[in-house]
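Posting for a labmate who doesn't have an account.
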Amino acid sequence: MNIAVFVSHGGSDLQAIIDGCKNEQINAAVAVVISNNGDSVAL
């Protein structure tokens, strides 16, 4: 399953989701990252 992740600042939740996908705790893949902040570290 592909998922979208919405971020606005540092990206710590995004990193946790990516890590969970890599170690198969989350059965999905991050397909797109969307932000309302062009300066977000997550981008």
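Reply:
Got it, the structure tokens are right above this. Strands lie at 2-7, 29-35.
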